[in-house]
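agent> Task received from the user: take the single chain below, predict its 3D structure, and emit structure tokens. No templates, no multimer pairing.
agent> Plan: (1) validate residues, (2) run structure prediction, (3) serialize to tokens, (4) report one or two observations.
agent> Step 1 OK, no nonstandard residues flagged.
tool_call: predict_structure(input=
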Amino acid sequence: MPYLSEIQHRRVIEPNGNEIGTLKDLAVVPQGQFPAVQWAILATGDGERVVKWSDIAQEIGHLRLRGRIDTVPDAMLPPDALRLSRDLMDKQIVDTHGAKIVRVNDLQLSDVEGQLRLVGADVGLRGLLRRIGAEGLAERLFGRRLPRGIIPWHLVEPLDSNTPEQGVRVTVPRTKLALLHPADIADIVEEMAADERRHVFEQLDIETAAEALSEVEPELQASIVTDLPEERAADILDEMAPDEAADLLQDLPEERREELVELMQKEEAQDVEELLTFPEDTAGGIMTTDFVALPAELTAQQAIDRLRELRPDPELTYYLYVIDGQGRLDGVISLRDLVVAKPEQKVADVMDPHVLKIDATASKEDVAALIAKYDLLALPVVDARHKLIGTVTVDDVVEIMLPRGWKKRSSRTLAR
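)
tool_result: status=success, residues=416
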């Protein structure tokens, strides 16, 4: 298959053999899996000329116009056209398999039934060597064929093809990006420039954006939220876990923090504001307000019906907390015990009243010690009146024991 570097700068001649210039670039509209080359940009003595690719024939060592240059009609590139060399070569793309940013060293083309198509991006050393004419020499020196580094074109797409003068970056389209694991999306955006990160978080659906932002390194989270429009940033914060949203907001300037909290939904904003009142090194500062609390007077059947209504995340059902009429913590019940209980039994009669808890003002080290000692998945947090106000999960303890930001790095490594 030919590569752009192999045909770029070839001589262009008229039917009579007169040389009228060289091939400067090719252009496509980035639609479909493998877009067709539709235009050629020629460098002539009179300046740049755009002609249809169908007006050119490929011949050994050169390209030949099908008519004289003064009879070949000028073509006009549409706004969404990509010039392969100018807009793609030496720009960055996302490797969706390796979840990383890589540079385009060459572009692979294919002549399919007389139609030249863009089929891949060469991001390997081989592509770079090919462009400087050293591919064959390098293979002779190494005594073997160099590995290919081709990413199929259907896995990449321009991030913003309407502003080529700013230097077009390339990424997977938002629909494909959204299919990746949030940790992989985070890895990708961390390698992007600030404007690219903003574009990604503007295009992702809110749920995916929130999950991905939670995985981004803490020092970048605040930068991303600061660059986003206020309403978009507030929507993403609404979707995040309250403790994660509070941690992020804590890193923002006070004025920006207040503006975003004001735009958040009332219930989510209240949860976040409550968390922001606690010092970061206390149980209240690291807890989450996402938990399941069941009134003690409910029957087992009513409690199960309540869970069906709430539809909590699976991790919130490890422990079901039981509270009295004033919201004070009375006990804990497992989902198993609730399911096997007689439907008419009161939750208060099935629960375990001996529940470990910790005061919101306790140090985070005390929290970690309790969770580690008793091998807990979560530890309830109460205020001075013994009202249940949150829980600290074992994941939060991992973050306590590791420097901020290392938790995300280590969890991503283990997940691969």
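agent> Step 4: summary for the user.
The first strand starts at residue 11 and ends at 13.
agent> Done.
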